[in-house]
Design goal:
By secondary structure, the chain is an alpha/beta fold. It contains eleven helices and nine strands. It is elongated, with a radius of gyration of 21 Å. It binds S-adenosylmethionine.
Length: about 290
Amino acid sequence: MSDSEQQDIQTLLSVASQQLMQHGLIDSPQLDAELLLSHALNVSRTYLFTWPEKVPSAEQLKNFPPLLEQRLQGYPIAHILGEREFWGLSLKVTQDTLIPRPDTETLVETTLNLMAKEAKKILPPPYPTLLDLGTGSGAIALALKSEQPQLAVTAVDQSTKALKIAQHNADSHQLNIQFLQSNWFSALTSPHATFDYIVSNPPYIEEKDPHLTQGDVRFEPLSALTSGEDGLDDIRYITQQAAAHLTPKGWLLIEHGYHQADSVANQFQINGFASIQLQHDLAGNPRVTLGQKR
Ligand SMILES: C[S@@+](CC[C@H](N)C(=O)[O-])C[C@H]1O[C@@H](n2cnc3c(N)ncnc32)[C@H](O)[C@@H]1O
């Protein structure tokens, strides 16, 4: 019998978080230990805090060491658990999708605020239409549809593997979204050609960014992350093409890197957008640029 089989929850957590901390490159050892143990025991994190003195049986604990070992090898928590929470929704994620980031909730929030303002002008019916470009796990599309059930949401990705995960997530939350395999706008032909809102968290990392060899991003698809030398190839393309796919006075909202705000605003200007605005994320970094079709 190994030591861990006789340890209570509090000790198991403390030993595991120590191991993760000694690893050196793991940002949140305590949280990761809690997530892994709650997953292994099939209980909530609240249970761990409520019953720190409970001693799980060897049978209950059998999955914990392999999960911990995967994390020590660098695998992202979201891949080990097979899920990530975004906007309060539990989403399946695999190595075929980007792991949804908290920063992206800024794009969701900005879109919802904009819709609330615009609702005073656009009175349903017909209900507003929205396109999510590069949907990945479906995070943005699902979050918006969950908040605005009347919204007609179309979501595209070039990756059929990602689209399968997104469809699974939509089904598991009973959200009706139209998913299409598309190279950006290529599959968007009439009658699904124009939208009141286009939102996107496209790839925007510079090809040679040294961070690509560190942490969780090593396990994510490069096609979801990088976009040319300056990270802006896809944003340039989307801002050039978007107006043709927006209804009159429709809005384009794009997430970007914190240092890309000026370049992105410039792209919006060059392509004729009006009312260009910038939103910051919770850490205070420039994160989302939006503009209106004239
Ligand atoms: C940064 S990820 C965003 C995923 C998801 N929207 C999120 O926020 O978590 C970018 C997504 O764009 C997709 N993508 C990359 N190039 C594309 C293209 N040419 N056409 C459509 N989707 C593309 C990738 O497959 C990936 O899912």
